[in-house]
Amino acid sequence: MSDINLVVVDPNALFRAGLVSLLSATGFGKVEAVATVEEFSRSRGGRPPPEIVLVNLAPDFDAVAAISEIAAVAPGAKIVFLAHELDISLLTACFAAGAYGYLLQDISRNALEESLKLVKAGEKVFPSRLASMMANLVGRHCEGTANGAGLSAYNFSTREVEILRCLAAGQPNKVIAATLDIAESTVKARLKGILRKTRACNRTQAAIWAFEQGLANGNSHPAAGEAGTAATPGLARRPAAEPVAHGSPSSAS
Questions:
Q1: Closest C-alpha among 99, 30, 34, 28 to residue 63
Q2: Would you say domain 151-217 falls under CATH 1.10.10.10?
């Protein structure tokens, strides 16, 4: 691990010091720490970029903007986020913007170390609970395909299909409402129908289901009465228990 240089970005001084201490003890070559992305940008001054930038997500933090700002001053650095909770919309947006990892703050020391090894190797990592949800939903999709059932079997309305596309793209309800020019209450009402039809337990599962159908790419499967299947991306190695690496570095983005 001594050949991996890393910068920790965390506004909380105590947590920041804890991460630096943990990673240094693990054997990273050089671990720096800053409080904000702005401070990170100011500190570069033409210096070579670190291999990994580990960003602890604070409330109301603009992760997508952070990715752009970090990339501007440290091109080639791989960005990994530590989040308090699994937010599928934020996770999707982060990967779409070029992040290499989205992990949860309750990750174990060993799992974090293994995750960062995978990131250095070019893999993308995310929580294992997301992989479990995807496996469950993909299993349902494959079962439906084996029975000859495409998306037409779900009897989605045109509006539900539009909302599913937005979910697959990682959009929150407010953005969906603005995109489709409808009330947010309408989005919530339609989501209830989508959850019932897809047998998803919550919004996150519905978003993953829609993503697995290829709806994030604007594919034409979902039109009512039109059957179709979607390719299922593979999952790679699982370091320890928490993180999961996506088998293709480009497919999660």
A1: 99
A2: yes
